[in-house]
């Protein structure tokens, strides 16, 4: 599928679920995750699409639901999925799904992570509702071999506790095995008309279940490449080279479905 085919199919869909990751997709990757912000053009386009007839919009992320809601506060009619599907908020902000957190197991994995961070001080630990993340983007290059060995051992111990460990862009995250972004899309599609065309765009290994689900349901999976993740582990329908290319497509779709004026021509 090329960009023109993508635009024509998505613009013409009678019922559409357009779902997008946040980091590396509508926001550039930040050195520290707290510094990430969605591109204004992406927010403008998603807002217009969310009010278009027959169109549902979802922002699907590993961030907590509070975090993604804060970073997309200008969007008043979108679904938000936090922690890879452990938290789901409907348009308007009402929380319609919240997984039960495995608190005791998380406590053990977090204490283990703290021991690792004492040996590798540049690691940053983040506890979410259903996961523990170790961020290693700030680890100096010369310290990374030792850090990766520590992360591998930590991952093995977390897996023995029943967690799935996702290795994303400068992050290892031990999460509840019951949730992933593909399951989150299934949850949303069950609440939309039968035959809804589902589009999912993401940039990392954590997005692969959703890309695969979109394709399995007859929809479209879009992968945004990066130097860290030049290739997807699943086959997408459309590959784009940077978040700006995806945001440009969102803008054009908003002009076609949502009446947003002044959209640029899509890239060739």
Automatic annotation (TrEMBL):
Transmembrane spans: none
Keyword terms, alphabetized: Hydrolase, Magnesium, Metal-binding
A Pfam family annotated for this UniProt entry: Trehalose_PPase
Cofactor requirement: Mg(2+)
Pathway: Glycan biosynthesis; trehalose biosynthesis
Signal peptide coordinates: none
Similarity comment: Belongs to the trehalose phosphatase family.
Protein name: Trehalose 6-phosphate phosphatase
UniProt source species: Sorangium cellulosum
Organism placement in taxonomy: Bacteria, Pseudomonadati, Myxococcota, Polyangia, Polyangiales
